[in-house]
Design goal:
2 domains, single chain, globular, 9 helices, alpha/beta, Rossmann fold
Length: about 325
């Protein structure tokens, strides 16, 4: 069973088709200068599949590095989680990395994966449920960037532990990242958050990771326009846009843009919007962190930082953050 999570805040997005959130936000994006839209709209079914392919690319180190960390330290992490725990995964995607934890945990009681792509989430949750029949798998279709009211904890269960892998925290602005961590600290009070964070490194490594030779990341970026055509009736011509990703060193972030190759017009809900040649739609930021900087951010949000694990090359980090009761 897939349920909608109670959400409060300035906007609500349930990732099931052509919802008003996407239309509203794209309309605002096209009306402003410079143009920018949230990366959460990447993740329809096709976008989720493309991202799964990105995670297997030779240039894309974050998935391999984080998986290596979780594999090497799963027993230590499971010991900190404790018995009969409830796992809450924010932006769960394909539910792959959590298996490394579930296999090491002592009788996990319930798993709540939260994602906006309802169809993809439902398919992956069904597969997980089949592989872990003793686990209560409760997939939640919701926008986890809003304030979340989770179901009550199971009677007699262990602590509630959040899982936020993939350095998705880097897709937020610093202000948004702080807000998300503050909300997570309240939702997980008395438990903890296991957080993956990408680290600052050689810009050449970063550039390669977001500009793969096979063009999968470019297709992932351009799929945002194809999704708008499918769901909102826009008339984007994806071939008239180019994928651009680069490291903005002063801001310590990768930026992804869609660059207009020519002067053109796009129609949404009967309104025409002009793109000049070279004008961009900013689709994603991916901030990179130092270990100390991430720990300071977590402290500001109310967490008490604990253990930190990194891969052998120091590319990626995984943090254990205590949420006071």
């Amino acid at each position: 069973m897939t349920v909608s999570l109670a959400v409060t805040g300035p906007a609500t997005l349930v990732g099931t088709g052509a919802d008003g959130g996407f239309a509203h936000d794209l309309k605002e994006a096209l009306a402003q200068r410079p143009r920018s839209i949230s990366p959460k709209y990447f993740y329809d079914v096709q976008g989720s599949r493309l991202f799964d392919r990105i995670c297997t690319l030779p240039e894309y180190y974050p998935t391999r590095a984080e998986t290596a960390i979780l594999s090497a330290h799963a027993q230590h992490i499971a010991a900190q989680i404790g018995p009969r725990a409830e796992m809450v995964e924010f932006g769960a995607g394909s539910l792959t990395k959590v298996r490394l934890l579930l296999d090491a945990m002592d009788r996990p009681a319930r798993y709540l994966p939260i994602d906006i792509s309802a169809e993809h989430l439902g398919t992956c949750a069904a597969a997980l449920r089949a592989d872990y029949p003793a686990l209560d798998v409760l997939p939640v279709t919701a926008d986890y960037t809003q304030r979340l009211l989770l179901p009550a904890s199971l009677p007699g269960g262990g602590r509630r532990v959040g899982f936020f892998p993939g350095s998705t925290i880097g897709n937020f602005t610093p202000r948004e990242a702080l807000h998300f961590l503050q909300v997570a600290c309240q939702v997980l009070r008395g438990g903890a958050l296991l957080l993956g964070a990408d680290l600052i490194k050689d810009p050449a490594v970063l550039h390669a990771a977001y500009n793969d030779a096979q063009g999968v990341t470019a297709a992932f970026n351009l799929n945002l326009l194809e999704r708008a055509n499918r769901e909102l009736g826009t008339d984007f011509v994806p071939q008239r846009f180019a994928h651009s990703a680069f490291y903005n060193a002063p801001l310590q972030r990768i930026e992804m843009h869609l660059v207009s190759r020519c002067q053109q017009y796009v129609t949404l809900s009967g309104e025409r919007h002009e793109f000049d040649e070279g004008e961009t739609l900013h689709t994603e930021n991916s901030y990179k962190f130092t270990i100390d900087g991430l720990r300071m951010l977590a402290e500001r949000a109310g967490f008490r930082p604990g253990s930190v694990w990194t891969d052998d090359a120091g590319l990626f980090s995984v943090h254990w953050l205590h949420a006071p009761a």
